[in-house]
Amino acid sequence: xxxxxxRSVTAFYGGLAxxxxxxxxxxxxxxxxxxxxxxxxxxxxxxxxxxxxxxxGGIEVFGTDTAGMRTxxxxxxxxxxxxxxxxTFPELTVQENLDLALxxxxxxxxxxxxxxxxxxxxxxxxxxxxxxRRAGALSGxxxxxxAIARGLLTRPRILMVDExxxxxxxxxxxxxxLQLRNLRDAWGISxxxxxxxxxxxxxxxxxxxxxxxxxxxxxxxxxxxxLADLAKSSYLGGTS
Length: 240
Ligand SMILES: Nc1ncnc2c1ncn2[C@@H]1O[C@H](COP(=O)(O)OP(=O)(O)OP(=O)(O)O)[C@@H](O)[C@H]1O
Ligand SMILES: [Mg+2]
Description:
The structure is a single chain. This protein is α/β, with parallel strands linked by helices. It is 35% helix and 28% strand. It folds into two domains: 1-78 and 158-240, 3-Layer(aba) Sandwich (Rossmann fold); 88-155, no CATH class. It contains nine helices and ten strands. It has a six-stranded mixed β-sheet with strand order 6-7-8-3-9-10, with helices on both faces. Strands 2-1-4-5 form a four-stranded antiparallel β-sheet, with helices on one face. Helix 3 (94-102) runs parallel beside helix 6 (140-153). The N and C termini lie far apart (36 Å). Bound molecules: adenosine-5'-triphosphate and magnesium ion (MG).
C-alpha cells in the first residue's frame, strides 16, 4: 500500500497546465522531497493532492481515489498541508494556534491530544517556552515550527510541507528538517517535502523527485543522487 499515488496527473490554472502527466508515489513512512527551480510546479503538486486545483488523472490517498473530493474531505483522509508562508494565525497566541489544530483531529484521535501536544513540544521546545506569545511575534523559524506543529496536531497520516526552510539560516533549516525525519520515525507518518535547497533535501529525504517546467525530470533515491547530478540536470536552484 502506498500513502499517496499520483497517476498521470495534469493540474490546471484556468486553461493552463502547470504540471503535466505527473507520476509520483509516496510510500508509507517515507520522506520524499520535491525539488526544482521556481515555477517548476512543486506547490501545484501539493495543491493538486489537496484538491485545490483542477486536475485530470488519478490521485489516491491510502488507496482511496480522491476524484471529486473537496479539500476538507481529503484532509479527513489524513492529509495535512502546511503551505509556504507558514499557515498560522498571527494574531492568536502559540497556544491558541495549537489548540485550533487539535480541534481539527478526527474523532478517534481525540484521546491522544495531550500526549501528542507533549510530543510535539519535545521536538520544538521553543513553542512551549513561547506558548503565550502572539504567533506573529515569533521569528521566521519559530513560525515555521508552529506551522509544522499545527499540521502534526491534526494527526495526519501524510504531512505535506511546502518550503519550510525558506529564508532560514542553514543550521536552523537543517534542524527543522531533521526533526521532520525524527517525527516520521516516532509518529509513523509519511512526508512529502518541497525544499529548494537541494543539499538539505538530499540529506533528509529517502527519495527525491526533481521537477522542471511541470514535469518530472528525475526520480532517485536521495543516496544515489549527488549535487553534481543535479547540476547536470535542468535543476539549477538552491544547490549552494
Ligand atoms: N494561481 C495561479 N494562477 C495561474 N498560474 C499559476 C498560479 N499559481 C502558479 N501558477 C503557475 O504554475 C506554474 C507552477 O507554479 P508553482 O507555484 O507550482 O511552482 P513552484 O515550483 O512551487 O515554484 P516556487 O519555487 O517559486 O514556489 C508556474 O508557471 C506559475 O506561474
Ligand atoms: Mg512553490
